[in-house]
Design a protein that fits this description.
The structure is a homodimer of 390-residue chains. Chain A is α/β, with parallel strands linked by helices and 390 residues long. The first copy, chain A, contains ten helices and 14 strands. The radius of gyration of chain A is 22 Å and the shape is globular.
């Protein structure tokens, strides 16, 4: 497999990670978030269902520790030397009386010499309390501390190569949305529509194959549109109902999400009116984007616009986005909401999603945008309005 | 949406959960594993990317706590009363200075009266160390303890309704494997084959639509067959190489996994010979299955067979399987391996997977089986041998 990133890009990432480690007083960093492990090594495999990590010293070589059977996966997808890949014995998997992190902590302590102040990703998926306690007990000579979202923050500003991957994902999601709008029809089973949607996304384009997305297709329909994260069933779509489509294109783990809403029939005026104001609000917020403007200022532009039309929304309208593994394509750093005073920088990327969930109906639309020197560039091109199939 | 399970089945599940709670001395149980949340309430949504839980008192009503925008999803997919569903404010999502579990702990303590001995799922996906510390700090009047795999163990023995869903998933995976064997061909892009595979799985059958699987299709090819958990790229399959297909059918969250291996061309004798012994070993192990036999005895039958042919395998050959959410369809209870002395019982279900991963090649085959009164019933019917496409 061709490496996704050249060696100098990986080196530059590591340099930026270490800069932050030094600033936070960390001697070592234990990376457990699969997207962060991918970011610092290129490692790519569905092995995060058993404990694993990449260990980053302030100086010296990285090491990757995973289940024994997955060690070859690390050999095939990274440039780490054989002696920097450690596979734990299978007898540690899912046992009541021992834990893979017991074994991993032993290697960290005795073979890699991990000591001093060690940063842990205390809120990363797939790092459990039991894993944490085993690691802490095994690293008795070290002081552990929350690294917070150290690597996630490094990921916030994208390289040209990363943007190339996200643009490829944007081409994919345009096809995915077109497939979805064609497939959703009265009497069609939801699962049959999602089969078509998924096939288009995974096929991708001629130049860039599709990868699995960090969310499966979100497809709430009818009264389900009052909430965003329902998936599908084998019941048919109905005339006179709306369906929310929160989908994404993904290429080599890089995502371009995009949400739209479709109505089968003649939409009620409350939905049509809300859709109109929501799309305008999204466009108003996009127009507010430029370097130096803060996340909360972008959200403020949206908030003021919809308030003028008697609407409000309690939840954030977006978040930083990029490379990801299930269950989330967000990067867990910046959010477009009140209180987030992070200034935007060129080459940051966000998914701005304005979801209006009411008692028993709702509307969503979204854009994935790049912060340029002068404003926001939406990566995908697709009509934002409520789609209506009479 | 028709409820997947009748009320009396949910009541019986809860009775069995409480029986174990009493035996383990628990006054309350905080369920964070999405499959366990689904098991005790029927809740189904992709909301596990932010913290959530179901709280089970030894007596009294359950409660479900999730992100505000997902509360309607709980109203739509469970029979919990409105006053038993709590949505946390969005300002708690992904913040450095507060955590959703701060809010959740407050509700548990002040509104639900959680005290005494509280069981936590210390090794469940999506329950992080930071969430744990917030919960523990907030439940200052309670003593927390690891509930271990309490609900998972209750799930081990399936009801007739659950087996009906798994049989539907078996019909789906038969189609999925057939699609895969047809799609994998020299020059075909891996992503194009997976597009076809995924579409077949999500479409399902006329009677039972497909759901998303807890693993995406595993499709290591060429030297990648030396390791099990690589996904796909947009490179083409090559003549003269093997591809491992670890796939599943899924219906309403219930899985029937099935793995096979296909060779494009004339397979080398080492692969053909290993495949033959491996399939025989699988069949020997299946023949050893009956109620009262232990997990390690089943594995022993496999181990002795392959040892007689000069082979060995360091990792377990199977695990309990059923309802699941990403990233794993295993139930994290029983494993078919040395040291697991759990006796088999009727209506337990396992995925027996014999993967032989060598230096730069490998072979896998598997069966999902039900323990009957007299032996093992394989749920799917599909030839087990190395598939060869000359």
């Amino acid at each position: 497999m061709t490496p996704t990133f050249p060696a100098d890009e990986l080196a530059e990432r590591l340099r930026r990670v270490r800069e932050r480690m030094a600033a936070q007083g960390l001697d070592w960093l234990v990376v457990t978030d699969p997207a962060n492990m991918h970011y610092v090594t290129g490692y790519d495999g569905w092995s995060f269902y058993t404990p694993q990590c990449v260990v980053v010293p302030l100086d010296g070589d990285l090491a990757l520790l995973t289940r024994g059977m997955d060690a070859n996966g690390a050999r095939l997808t990274t440039t780490l030397g054989d002696d920097r890949i450690f596979g734990f014995p299978d007898e540690f998997v899912q046992q009541p009386d021992r834990h893979p992190m017991d074994w991993i902590a032993g290697v960290l302590r005795d073979r890699l010499g991990v000591r001093g102040t060690v940063g842990l990703e205390m809120d990363s998926y797939y790092f459990t309390p039991r894993a944490y306690e085993a690691l802490k007990a095994g690293l008795s000579g070290a002081r552990t501390t929350d690294s917070q979202q150290l690597v996630n923050w490094v990921r916030a500003v994208k390289s040209d190569r990363e943007l190339e991957l996200m643009r490829a994902a944007a081409r994919i999601v345009e096809r995915v949305l077109a497939t979805a709008l064609e497939a959703v029809d009265p009497g069609v089973r939801q699962c049959d529509a999602v089969a078509a949607i998924s096939a288009t996304g995974i096929r991708g384009t001629e130049d860039a194959g599709g990868d699995y997305t960090a969310f499966v297709p979100m497809l709430p329909t009818g009264p389900g549109t009052s909430t965003p994260h329902l998936t599908w069933s084998d019941a048919p779509f109905k005339h006179g109902e709306a369906t929310i489509l929160e989908l994404a294109g993904c290429h080599r783990r890089y995502h371009c999400p995009l949400a739209r809403t479709v109505f089968l029939g003649d939409p009620p005026s409350k939905l049509a009116d809300t859709a109109k104001v929501t799309v305008e609000g999204l466009e108003t917020a996009l127009a507010a984007v430029r370097p130096g403007v803060t996340c909360e200022e972008v959200e403020g532009a949206w908030r003021r616009h919809i308030a003028a039309h008697g609407l409000e929304k309690a939840s954030r309208i977006g978040y930083s986005v990029g490379a990801a593994y299930p269950p989330d394509w967000g990067e867990h750093t910046m959010s477009l909401r009140p209180g987030d005073r992070t200034p935007l920088q060129p080459n940051m990327t966000f998914h701005m999603i304005v979801g209006m969930w009411m008692d028993d109906w709702g509307f969503e639309t979204s854009e994935t945008f790049l912060v340029t020197e002068t404003g926001a560039e939406c990566l995908a091109r697709f009509p934002r309005e409520l789609a209506v199939k009479p």
